[in-house]
Amino acid sequence: MPLLLRVNQLRNIIWSSCPVMLQMQHAGLPSGKLLGPRSYEKRHFTTRVQTLETAVMDTTTTGLGSCNSGIQQLKLQRTSEHGQCATILVFDIETTGFLDKSNNNRIVELALRDLSGGKNSTFETLINPEMDIPTFVEKVHKISTKMVRRHDIPRFGDVLPLLLAFVQSRQTPGKPVIWVAHRAKAFDAPFLAREFDRCSVQMPTDWLFVDSVCLARKLPNMPKSSDGKKHLVNLEALRKHYGIRMEGSAHRAMQDVTTLCQVFQKITFDLNLSYEGLMNDATKSSAFSKVS
DNA sequence: CGCTAGCTGCGCAGAACGCT
DNA sequence: AGCGTTCTGCGCAGCTAGCG
């Protein structure tokens, strides 16, 4: 009997060290899904619970109590208290291409909107990139080289002082400015910071960037991708999820900003996210800028 | 007490996503 | 078309309940 146990133990050790693929083939099973159904179900379930707990914790640990019922409510508070909270600017940029190591690509359109609304709450401009826009990029945002590579279209360096003045006009003294964009951390914010660097201008240190993709990933019940593995969190999927009507064409900066404004308010409401919760998710401008 | 079987958590690699 | 982030699944080690 002890010998049998030893043999069984040895078998188990050897067997457990075999590639799972081999075991599946040996068992006559297809080599597609390698986890057992029960394990897969448990892992999947655990992941979902953790996600929900994290989302709940994000809103409950802010210590706000009555103040953590969404940005919409906070907007009212901000209005009623004459701007006691941070300014939230939803923004989007269109460029000549991706953010790559070559550092060649430029911004061709910039749009932003102050979420608190009111007069002069938007800023929108085409920007002369001083380079041609690749055809495949033109097809995305419908902004052609002819439209922007003109003498009457300002360069980013020309727009920069106006942008800074606009933001300052919307900013509450002593309070930060929260910039919100879809994929801000990986695209919009670094791109904007790079343009600041190129102009040798330091991005204000009280600017914070929030990525709406990161927030959307915390949402439960988002639609899944075609393979059923991932939650779809692109702007179009979020727009459809919330039943937001599309006005104008997608992939133009102000149109995307308008859509994102509505999506963002829905997300913050669903996540019960407060200003403090938002600040916890924010990244400082210094993280993207090289000019110090 | 020793062993088995199952579960959990961590680190890693690869795939997919999302932006223009 | 590039790149960073996120997610998923695998492999492994460690833990523990149950059993003989």
TrEMBL record:
Short name of one Pfam family: RNase_T
GO MF entry, a single one: nucleic acid binding
Domain Exonuclease: 87-273
InterPro entries in UniProt: Ribonucl_H, RNaseH-like_sf, RNaseH_sf, TREX1/2
Cofactor(s) the protein requires to work: Mg(2+)
Keywords: Exonuclease, Hydrolase, Magnesium, Metal-binding, Nuclease
Keyword Ribonucleoprotein: no
Biological-process GO terms, alphabetical: DNA catabolic process
Domain of life according to the entry: Eukaryota
Metal-binding listed as a keyword: yes
GO CC terms in record: cytoplasm
PANTHER family to which the protein is assigned, alphabetical: OS04G0623400 PROTEIN, THREE PRIME REPAIR EXONUCLEASE 1, 2
Protein family per UniProt: Belongs to the exonuclease superfamily. TREX family.
Protein name according to UniProt: Exonuclease domain-containing protein
Name of the coding gene: LOC100829347
